[in-house]
């Protein structure tokens, strides 16, 4: 099956540095695919290469099997939703949405129903005659969406479209976008630096850093089994510390700590006894337990340094032999008290 | 759309950008033919390669030699420079407090007031010179007012008002004052007022703040303003011819006369023209570099 | 406490401002007064109210011809300057290219060249090539003079325009020409009008260069200049001057306010 969008080892250099460094991606038909990473990682440049605003210095861009690397943006069958919407201020909502259709000379009687239908899809019926200046941020966003989607592109490219909205509106729009994408079945390529957003909306995520793709996978895969330390650290928060694999027992490494602590973690084949391992475990998998409890595989003791109330849960920061460990608790112990933290062996993993 | 997209698509495989040269060709061609070539022709006349008269002629530096050895023209040039310096300095000195007021006093209508200040500059130059002719003459507004009120007796007008250096400088100052306020205003407006607050917080009085913070930071605007008035007035000939009389005769008038119908000397006139152009170009280059550095 | 001005300082400067504005507008007001003065010579004391001079200048066919000539020259040269200016401004504002500084400098150079030198150079050009002086030669000269002003108005406006608007048009399938027609042009239109008006008023009032390259048909400034040598013409000239000055003041202020309003309506934020 041909991928909807395919990038083959694309490279883009600015000055001496590579903003996009041999990126290869294959995005499937109807997928909601996100490019996630910190600013400067190359995700926007990659998106603009798909759109055609940036020509790669090496590599190919294919849309549904056809090489479009040298095709200018106005001849590619993809459409973009810009970060600040780029709505034409001098045209009404209707004319904005109609623009792509009028350029392709779609006859008026076909244009009209398509535009009205699209207005319904984005929940903006009745707004046709308004001008962008008279709309709220969220409404402008939806016009930008409609303007792109009405052309029935092979894929929709979204460049951090929700960045300008406040948190509540953003969460609403995330659901909206997901719904629209399902309804229309269009391939979405979504650029964001917000990992929660990417996890919430995507079918698959490509985590990028410094021009490279570090991990491509479903949200669950990327969250629970990150392939690199960067990904692990970027997505969600993470406790990480170094231990020496003192014993190897049935696929796990065991490290004994002073004062009765112990770390057990699953390891790959070929890890030798005595090797230094960097181990990571998510805060929500770390539990506060009674001293001496044998419920979980790994255990360590420490002193509570700080507690941070976050409404849904309380973060507990403790200094331990392994360094600073953060966990979540419903009944947090008081600062400066002793505390025992534990987690299941299978909830931790070695990061590369 | 074929052809490179210029800045819109950048990359190794963008086709050569055909549109930028296409866009620039008409304006550049126009300027090449009707601006650069004519100046070149002036240069040719100045060395006698081209000449007004059909008699045989050949390349020679003689006109340039005469210009520099014969002190008449250089003296006249220097006179024009002095007059322009005085006018420019005074006009900038008056415009600065005006611009300061508009930019830093916090008045809410500063752009409207700026427009009011600048508007006269955007009306007719010639007509504003005419207005002063009417005002300054022996039978003009000022003098007849003085007669009427008895301050001076009729038949004894202040003749030095019109057809004098004073008249030329007054009128030139009047014409350029509105315009000069603009670059100073722009410079002061872009000043971060928090700098002034910081200075004040550190104990400086308003005068000290002005002298040590505001003024130095507004120097680029002041220099721009000075050049905006100095460069045009050095080569002025219209105002001197209308209100300058004999004593207000300037370098520009000399150039005009050399091309006039009386005793045309296109060779010398071209030399004078190029000299003026050279001085102006040098000033522009020197000061634009200075302003960019800051 | 205001770090920039004390209360007294502010009063002082405000007084200076008022004084200067009075100084700037007084001569115009004086012309206004004397345009209604019933005397051949503008002098005190005033001789009584009359509209005679306005009637005279309206009947003066030479004067009317000169105004018409200037209007034609101004219209033609403004169209030329704006057309060249739009094209040059797009290249400067939207394209990055080597030699940009040099091209900029060349396009703006006419601003610093003294008019006497430029006028002479055109005179020599036309003489050497053998083109007779006429309205056409004046138009040519005025296009050169006005071109930098149009660029100075249009480049900032284009730079201010969100570049992603043009990208969006591209993305939606529009070619370069369609993008310009549907997106860029409507949004820079107020600035184009401004540029046109600046070019028009510059040309209409231009004496220096015109004096060297004008043919037999006089432009308005040429007519004025020669009329100033004849005392009998003076009152009429004053009347004309008043009309022209008033109109140009209104045009200037109106155009600027109009441009601000238009741009505000297009969603750009302008300080008031």
Task: Give your account of this protein's structure.
The complex is a heterotrimer of chains A (352), B (294) and C (272). In chain A, helix 2 crosses helix 3 (108-121), helix 2 (93-103) packs parallel to helix 4 (137-149) and helix 3 crosses helix 4 (137-149). The two termini of chain A are 33 Å apart. In chain A, strand 9 (204-209) and strand 10 (212-217) form a beta hairpin. Chain A has eight helices and 21 strands. A six-stranded mixed beta sheet of chain A has the order 6-7-8-3-9-10, sandwiched between helices. A five-stranded antiparallel beta sheet of chain A has the order 16-20-17-18-19, with no helix packed on it. With 352 residues, chain A is α+β, with helices and mostly antiparallel strands. In chain B, helix 3 runs antiparallel to helix 9 (206-234) and helix 7 (165-189) crosses helix 9 (206-234). Chain B has helices at 19-46, 62-69, 71-104, 110-118, 125-136, 141-148, 165-189, 193-201, 206-234, 238-244, 251-258, 266-293. With 294 residues, chain B is an all-alpha fold. Chain B is globular, with a radius of gyration of 25 Å. The model of chain B is unreliable at 1-16 (pLDDT under 50). The longest helix of chain B is centred in the N-terminal third of the chain and has 34 residues, at 71-104. Chains in contact: A-B, A-C, B-C. Chains A and C meet through helix 2 of A and helix 7 and helix 8 of C.
Short description:
The complex is a heterotrimer of chains A (352), B (294) and C (272). With 352 residues, chain A is an alpha+beta fold.
């Amino acid at each position: 099956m041909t991928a909807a969008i395919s990038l083959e080892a694309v490279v883009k250099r600015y000055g001496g540095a590579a903003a996009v460094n041999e990126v290869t991606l294959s995005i499937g038909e109807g997928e909601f695919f996100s490019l996630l990473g910190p600013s400067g990682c190359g995700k926007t440049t990659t998106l603009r290469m798909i759109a055609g605003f940036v020509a790669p210095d090496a590599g190919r861009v294919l849309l549904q099997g056809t090489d479009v690397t040298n095709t200018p943006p106005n001849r590619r069958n993809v459409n973009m939703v810009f970060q600040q919407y780029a709505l034409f201020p001098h045209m009404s909502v209707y004319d904005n949405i109609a623009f792509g259709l009028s350029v392709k000379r779609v006859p008026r009687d076909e244009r009209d129903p398509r535009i009205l239908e699209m207005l319904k899809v984005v929940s903006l019926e009745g707004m046709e005659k308004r001008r962008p200046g008279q709309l709220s941020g969220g409404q402008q966003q939806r016009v930008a969406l409609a303007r792109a989607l009405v052309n029935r592109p092979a894929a929709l490219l979204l460049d951090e479209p929700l960045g300008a909205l406040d948190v509540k509106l953003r969460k609403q729009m995330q659901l909206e976008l997901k719904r629209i994408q399902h309804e229309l079945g269009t391939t979405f390529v979504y650029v964001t630096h917000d990992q929660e957003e990417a996890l919430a909306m995507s079918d698959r995520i490509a985590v990028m850093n410094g021009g490279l793709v570090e991990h491509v996978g479903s949200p669950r895969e990327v969250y629970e089994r990150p392939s690199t330390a960067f990904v692990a650290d970027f997505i969600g928060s993470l406790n990480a510390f170094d231990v020496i694999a003192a014993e190897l027992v049935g696929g796990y490494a065991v490290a004994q700590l002073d004062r009765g602590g112990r770390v057990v973690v699953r390891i790959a084949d070929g890890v030798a006894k005595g090797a230094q391992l960097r181990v990571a475990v998510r805060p929500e998998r770390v539990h506060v337990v009674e001293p001496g409890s044998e419920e979980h595989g790994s255990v360590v003791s420490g002193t509570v340094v700080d507690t941070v109330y976050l409404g849904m849960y309380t973060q507990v920061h403790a200094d331990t032999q392994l360094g600073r460990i953060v966990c979540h608790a419903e009944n947090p112990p008081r600062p400066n008290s002793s505390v025992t933290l534990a987690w299941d062996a299978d909830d931790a993993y070695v990061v590369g | 759309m074929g052809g490179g997209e210029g800045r819109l698509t950048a990359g190794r495989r963008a086709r050569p950008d055909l549109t930028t040269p296409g866009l620039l060709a008409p304006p550049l061609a126009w300027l090449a033919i009707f601006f650069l070539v004519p100046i070149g022709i002036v240069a040719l006349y100045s060395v006698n390669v081209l000449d007004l008269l059909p008699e045989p002629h050949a390349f020679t530096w003689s006109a340039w030699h005469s210009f520099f050895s014969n002190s008449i023209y250089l003296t006249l040039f220097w006179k024009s420079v002095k007059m322009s310096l005085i006018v420019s300095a005074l006009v900038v000195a008056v415009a600065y407090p005006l611009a300061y007021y508009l930019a830093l006093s916090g008045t809410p209508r500063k752009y409207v007031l700026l427009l009011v200040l600048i508007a006269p500059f955007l009306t007719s130059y010639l007509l504003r010179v005419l207005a002063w002719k009417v005002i300054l003459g022996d039978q003009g507004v000022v003098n007849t007012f003085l007669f009427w009120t008895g301050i001076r007796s009729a038949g004894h007008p202040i003749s030095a008002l019109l057809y004098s250096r004073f008249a030329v400088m007054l009128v030139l100052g009047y014409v350029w004052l509105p315009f000069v306020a603009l670059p100073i205003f722009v410079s002061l407006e872009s000043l971060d007022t928090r700098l002034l607050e910081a200075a004040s917080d550190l104990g400086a009085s308003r005068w000290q703040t002005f002298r040590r913070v505001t003024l130095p930071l507004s120097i680029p605007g002041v220099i721009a303003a000075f050049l905006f008035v100095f460069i045009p007035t050095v080569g002025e000939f219209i105002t001197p011819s209308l209100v300058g009389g004999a004593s207000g005769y300037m370098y520009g008038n000399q150039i005009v006369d050399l091309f006039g119908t009386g005793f045309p000397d296109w060779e010398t006139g071209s030399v004078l023209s190029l000299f003026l152009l050279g001085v102006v170009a040098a000033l522009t280059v020197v000061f634009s570099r200075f302003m960019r550095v800051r | 406490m205001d770090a920039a001005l004390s209360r007294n300082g502010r009063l002082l400067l405000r007084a200076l401002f008022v004084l200067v504005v009075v100084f700037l507008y007084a001569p115009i007001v004086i012309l206004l007064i004397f345009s209604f003065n019933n005397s051949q010579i503008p002098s005190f004391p005033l001789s009584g109210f009359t509209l005679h001079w306005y009637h005279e200048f309206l009947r003066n066919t030479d004067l009317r011809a000169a105004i018409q000539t200037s209007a034609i020259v101004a219209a033609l040269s403004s169209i030329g300057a704006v057309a060249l200016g739009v094209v040059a401004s797009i290249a400067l504002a939207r394209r990055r290219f080597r030699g940009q500084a040099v091209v900029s400098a060349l396009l703006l150079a006419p601003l610093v060249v003294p008019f006497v030198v430029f006028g002479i150079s055109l005179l020599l050009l036309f003489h050497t090539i053998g083109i007779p002086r006429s309205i056409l030669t004046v138009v040519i000269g005025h296009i050169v003079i006005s071109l930098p002003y149009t660029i100075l108005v249009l480049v900032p406006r284009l730079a201010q325009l969100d570049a992603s608007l043009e990208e969006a048009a591209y993305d939606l399938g529009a070619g370069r020409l369609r993008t310009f027609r549907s997106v860029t042009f409507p949004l820079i239109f107020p600035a184009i009008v401004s540029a046109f008006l600046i070019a028009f008023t510059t040309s209409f009032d231009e004496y220096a260069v015109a004096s060297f390259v004008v043919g037999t048909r006089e432009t308005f400034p040429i007519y004025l200049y020669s009329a100033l040598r004849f005392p009998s013409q003076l009152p009429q000239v004053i009347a004309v001057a008043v009309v022209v000055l008033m109109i140009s003041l209104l045009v200037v202020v109106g155009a600027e306010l109009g441009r601000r309003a238009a741009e505000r309506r297009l969603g750009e934020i302008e300080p008031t």
